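User: I'm writing a short methods note and want a consistent example. For Glycoside hydrolase family 1 protein, I'll paste the sequence; you return only the structure tokens, no commentary, since I'll be parsing the reply automatically.
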Amino acid sequence: MQYRFPDNFWWGSASSAPQMEGAAARGGKSANIFDHWFAIAPERFHGGIGPTDTSTFYDHFESDIALLKQLGHNSFRTSISWSRLIPDGTGEINPEAVAFYNAVFDRLLAEGITPLINLYHFDMPMCMQERGGWESREVVAAYIHYASHCFALFGDRIKHWFTFNEPIVPVECGYLGHHHYPCVVDFGRAVTVAYHTALAHAGAVQAYRARQEDGEIGIILNLTPTYPRSQEPADLLASRRADLLLNKSFLDPALKGCYDPELIALLEQYDLLPQVAEGDKALLAAGKVDLLGINYYQPRRVKAKDEPWSGTPRTPEDLFDYYEMPGRKMNPHRGWEIYEKGIYDILTDLRVNYGNLPCYISENGMGVEGEERFIGPQGRVEDDYRIDFIRGHLEWLHRALEEGSACRGYHLWTFIDNWSWLNAYKNRYGLVRLDLETQQRTIKKSGHWFADVARNHGFN
Ligand code: BGP
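Assistant:
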């Protein structure tokens, strides 16, 4: 076989509690920031569809897990919802949530599917947002408390934990770009949010290690490789700054236990450093992970600004501009460039510059609008474009493995078409089509292909 992967390679997919469970107002769950935001600004969500009934996994998890099995999965990642497990953020554990997650995890294990469990996927409980969200150290402490409960409740069966999914996204979307609640645009506050998230991550890692369990803990980062337009000094500087602010700001604390001095200098230059408390440095050092999840969708192409910014930047994008590479291949539905080699570049960077820590591709995928156009005579979506997309990325992943990358697996985003933050069900990513009217699930052509690849440990 031309592209043969290791026998124990993780084949699977990823989702998250808020995007898949549904039952957002049932089972004792309290509102998270997306539930709240939908209640006050439904026009921000595509088609006016909010997070209330996302993909109904809460009600269908048994048959959905049977589908995972059919898709050849040996592993699956989802998250625990903080607002479901501890509805008031800090106090009583919700027994209905414990019963639900126990049932899900037991079912996955019974099917021979390893659960990889993430603790936070953009879904701050609203009650904790009201107490300052990530701007508040009290919320950091509450998150560590929540994480510790998760370890105690489920750690006997969950052996692969992740503290956060894409922690830069709530910073960029919630505090810089006006894309997610609380829709703040303030660079200084964004830096504080990022810094406190890194502390929360480290605190959870420390709490997990203190338990001396026989599992591992990591973080999931969207490592968007940064490519300068040219080798001109101004383009290189712009690219370096984008990389420091948007990749290395979480990558270095998670893998090295400290920040890159260049990032500190850059923030200092613009008077954007967060408040540092005694003990923070030691805590960050304790946050080095065992395992890194990498979400990869698109490259970041950067050029110098035509007019250099003077004064304090309002957002990172005041320090660089995005660059559209001529001839780039696009996914027009999501507006994201498709660049398969990026996956290889990330894995090579991790191998050469970060000690080749165990890692896996925790998300990669292609969201396509109007997939009903591709429903064939057999009644399934004939999504050859998705097969091409996955295959193209796996070929580069395979090359990275041949060169010694410690990549352990590949997870697609996502399993069943699920709800997306602002786009709701506009772009479909699943191996399985979801009929929104009937909630019927139908495996797409890519799902059958993926199952074959997983069972054969590769493809030709
Ligand atoms: C990642 C998130 C996922 C998922 C995916 C697809 O950034 O971790 O939650 O949503 O992107 O992006 P979108 O849903 O915005 O199309």
